[in-house]
Design goal:
With 506 residues, this protein is of the alpha/beta class. It contains 16 helices and 19 strands. The radius of gyration is 26 Å and the shape is elongated. Keywords: ATP-binding, Kinase, Nucleotide-binding, Serine/threonine-protein kinase, Transferase.
Amino acid sequence: MDSVFGPRPRGMLSFFVQKRRDKMPKPAELERGTVIGERYRVERVLGSGGMGRVYLSSDAKLPGKRWAVKETLAATEDYERIGNEARMLTRLRHPSLPQVVDFLSPDASGRVFLVMEYIEGMNLGEYAARCGGRPDLAFVLELTLRICDVLDYLHGQSPPIVFRDLKPGNVMIGADGAVRLIDFGIARSTGPGRLDDTVKLGTIGFAAPEQYEGRSEPSSDQYALGALLLHLCTGGQFSAWTPEAQRALRPDLPPPLAAAIRKMLSYRAEDRYASIAEIKRLVRPVGASSELAQAGAGGIGTSTVAVLGLFRGCGVTHTAIAAAHTLAREGGRTAIVELDRRAGSFAQIALEWEGEPLRDRPTFSVGGVDYWPDAGRERLADVFGRGYRHVVLDLGLCGDAGDFEEFQRADVPVVVGSGREWRSGEWDAFVRRESLRARPKWRYVLPFAASEDIRELRGRLGSKHVYALPLLPDPFGGQCRAAFEPILGTLYAKRERRSRLKLGFR
């Protein structure tokens, strides 16, 4: 069961999905010349998936006409539902969807067939490969807009229709440049009683987390779109948001789109955008008026530091502020975000610094660092879209699973606790709670700790990344480089490497 600190390992869920698929073996491939429904003659296989195939077929009644015939293996109890949903698909009309023209009831083997318009061209994976893994940015923006448009259309049906299997292989780039979603298969409408609906559709790496649990909803398609765009913008390397994926993003990707991808890939559906329509508003048609095209690329190299405290009063906010001002002094625009809405610390800082409350202002600046008080995760897309070089997240006690997701995503995750013997229980509880998680990059910080405390905790945690933090009387001064060198040194090193490169080209 998921803990407050995050989801279950996805590998086990993937295994569950595969085992469910194994219960219904895929039927034998139809031979060329086989006639389906006394009308559609099989020419060749266009594609194959876990539960069936797509055949290119000629039409006995319309000489010269060719169709894509989708084969799906169905259980007997699903026949009525599949028939109803197939008839629903035949009513769909959108330029980015192949028209569904016919549905053939299950044969003796339990195979149902959906007859769709055949689209000539290449799929998105093939198109990207021809571009050397890096299609033009204008193409990426236009593709995003087109996919958003068709998903918005599907989700606007009553009840909403979830595509469920958005991936490069299911996006066709036509010979005329048109974008189509193919392999539509038997998509599902949402509603009560829609459990266990993803064992037949959904691709590991692109399917939303809830699909591994047998659920799909409109935001599941949003997650898949984020995975597809991340895959496309990292040269096919990544489909899940990690610090490594962020560093692999193409350098010309506008920060607002990078931030949007990050938000779409939130583990929890409620942390994504409210609808695809919000993403559509973010991505305008390519041209002089495009906000994304003009946004620049300053935020793609954003480094994230997430600071989590084990107990109230441990100094987590003090540490986060000192880290933010240290990074700002190192160079590059820096922001610090207060995700713990119960804290109220940043509002107090604003009052003391500026002499008046923030009122409706979302941010204020102190010593070159932008402060985002009481931000909440819904504001993160806005923050990451601003092109900051460094973002420090003050997670407080991190009592929310969504906040812990941000901790795991960070380049430098920092846990602040205490080396006092009477506080050892907090570390013990933390270790027990997180004992099954990979923690190679986590940093453990003990303010004012003695050297023997550091050695003891390193042994208890099984990590060498345990550090003492000295007294920092002025966290706003940015004079803490030496204190943070062991903790944030990798971020310093990135800056120094960039400086040497610049000097080499002078």
